[in-house]
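FW: tagging you since you asked about this chain on Friday. Here's the raw sequence from the shared folder, copied in full. Didn't touch anything.
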Amino acid sequence: MSVSEGERRPAGELEASVLAALWAAGAPQTAAQVRASISQDLARTTVATLLARLHDKGVIGRRPGGRGFLYYAVEDSNGLTARRMHRALDQGGDDRGLVLARFVEGLNADDEAELRRLLREDRP
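HL: got it, structure written out here
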């Protein structure tokens, strides 16, 4: 989706940019470092708001550093996707079995085989 000049970008797109910057950095970053590493030209306050929202959602962590905070991703992109899947399952109503069944029905053969393999593995 293209955003013309003057239009607002969806919050999810901006949050994804901030997360991508934190993942790429591989080390905790200040808000200024995050702002400098994303492709969008965002105001300092916008980046601060995005970081605060992601922190409130538990997607990123922060610790004191310098005159502010250092921000870091708490999970990689695969972990974040799994977290979203769990949240969707939790919001699916009372019949978790039905939600899971519908999910499995939509898997292609390779994904279904991988899921079966993972379920057979011994877990600690």
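FW: Strands lie at 60-65, 68-73.
HL: agreed, and Residues 1-6 have pLDDT under 50 and may be disordered.
FW: great, closing this out.
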